[in-house]
Amino acid sequence: MAAITNMNKVFLGGNLAADAEWRDVGDGGVLNFRLINNTMKQKDDPGDTHVNGFDVAVWNNYGKALKDLLGKGSSVTVEGRITQRTYEDKNGQTQYRYGVTADKIEIGNSRSPSNGNGSSSQSEAPAEPEQDPFAEGEESPFEESAAQA
User: Which residues pair with 13 in a beta bridge?
Assistant: First the structure.
């Protein structure tokens, strides 16, 4: 069996920690949000959990289409890839910042009105190909988060 190489795929599910934020970048833009979920620390103690936080970027028209649907507490599943940014902090130390660039998002509940039977609608759409998030002259979608860290 041949080994799988150069794979970068991630699936995450959770809730938005705050409202998603749209930012114009170059000819397009990026929608940023923080996804949080819980992981059990021990199998035998479901009350013993660890909260994880992931910075997610959704580029261009796909992000723009989602910006009014994603608010604090929205339940989403994200399919995408891990991206890394390297920068120097104010002390000259090299720092690494990791985030997720979304290729597809499924919304479990959102700010949109319910579908009439008391439950929220689900939507799913593939993302359009985006520009290279770390291309020359482009800002990182995780820049603001890094400055706060």
Answer: 77
pLDDT of residue 110: 58
Tokens of 65: 């289409």
Please say whether the dihedral angle defined by the alpha carbons of residues 61, 71, 25 and 139, taken in this order, is positive or negative.
negative
How many domains in the chain?
Answer: 1
d(CA 23, CA 84): 19
Could you give the C-alpha distances from 89 to 24, 68, 85, 144, in angstroms and in order?
A: 25, 34, 12, 13
> By residue range, what is the domain housing residue 81?
10-148
The string of pLDDT tens digits covering residues 98-147 is: 999 999 999 997 554 333 333 344 444 445 444 444 444 445 555 554 44
Could you read off the pLDDT of 45-84 as tens digits, one per residue?
Answer: 767 788 999 999 999 999 999 999 999 999 999 999 999 9
Q: 5 lies in a domain?
A: no
CA distances from 51 to 35, 85, 92, 127 (A): 10, 23, 30, 27
Cα gap 57→31, rounded to integer Å: 6
